[in-house]
Amino acid sequence: MPQLKQTQSSLAEINMVPFIDVVLVLLIIFMITAPILQSGIEVDVPKTKTVHQITEQHLVITVDKAQRIYLGDEPVNIHELGDKIHAALKKPQDTIYLRCDETVPFGAFATVVDSLRQSGINNISIVTQPINDRAKTR
Fold first, then answer.
1. Is the per-residue pLDDT at 106 higher than 80?
2. 130 pLDDT above the threshold of 60
3. How far apart are CA 44 and CA 53, in angstroms?
4. CA 131, 123, 93 angle in degrees (round to 5)?
5. At 70, phi and psi to the nearest 5?
6. Residues 12-61: tens digit of each pLDDT
7. Nearest 10 degrees: CA dihedral of 27, 28, 30, 33?
8. Is 85 in contact with 117 (CB distance < 8 Å)?
9. What's the order of all strands across the beta sheet hosting 96-100?
């Protein structure tokens, strides 16, 4: 009776190339989407010719289409807005950025600005978006 040879193939090492490919693709996806997720409240700010780029992190107040007011990403009552901003400010002279949807009536916008001024906050900057050349030709 002839003897049968048994061949054993063992997996000596794990192929890491597909794993590294997947990790790098996920890293690229997170790097692209992270700046988009910075502010979760969707607002169409008005378009102007002069726009100042915000480079560092600041305190942002947002008024959305439904005229809800947010401090950062948290909803806030307009009567508590001044107290919450004073608690969040590092220095009293820091700039507060106000993002307001372009469909919000001016009266609601003026009420928020007035509430800020009554609480002693005078350094308010309004966030706008630059006008593109295509929008001018329409």
1. yes
2. yes
3. 16
4. 135
5. -125, 140
6. 677 888 889 999 999 998 888 776 655 556 666 666 666 556 555 678 88
7. 180
8. no
9. 74-75, 69-71, 59-63, 96-100, 124-126
At residue 49, the pLDDT reads 66
pTM: 0.56
Q: HSE of 110 in the Cβ direction (CA atoms, 13 Å)?
A: 3
CA distance 8 to 17: 25
Could you give the domains of the chain? 42-137 (3.30.420.270)
| 21: Cα separation from own chain's centroid | 29
Separation between Cα atoms, residue 58 and residue 71, nearest integer Å: 11
In order, the DSSP letters of 47-65 are: EES--PPP-S--EEEEE-T
